[in-house]
Fold:
Amino acid sequence: MAFNIEQFKSNFGDGGARPNLFQVTLNFPSTVTTPPTTTPFMIRAAQIPSSTIAQVDVPYQGRQVRVAGNRTFEPWTVTILNAENFDVRNSLERWMSSINGHESNIGQDRASSYKADAIVKHFGKDGRELSNGVYNFIGLFPTELSTIELAWDSNDVIEEFTCTFAFDYWQHAGVVTT
Structure:
């Protein structure tokens, strides 16, 4: 039978992974002397990272032979809830200022002094960490800190903003990524 609902359901014995059961741990470089401790609770939205392997077209006697090129990684953006103490926002601003100052236009001369790592963890419906749902971002630094929208008619909402990061690569804890 081509359409068997029971066969389909048997492939989701655990009910499937849920996109709302996750946590992001954002590490800060040592240049941010007072990093926030609240980031795992304040990062409201994130993504599992994407990656692309480019194709290289090699011409051969009027034809294009395609071979694999280099892997690239798109920037990674997280959405952050803003607390009244601006703890996470201020730390991200200090991090970006250590990379390039607003007024001085100078910053760190070694990438190792401004790069850090982040971890995205998935959790099961029973609260356990899913070992195949852990992603490590290596060599991460903020490239864009969004606006915080303010309006007199914004009642019953919490401020939020986004931060976009560049990173060197990611590692999936459940998969060998040499």
Remarks:
- The longest helix spans residues 87-99.
- The chain has a mean pLDDT of 90.
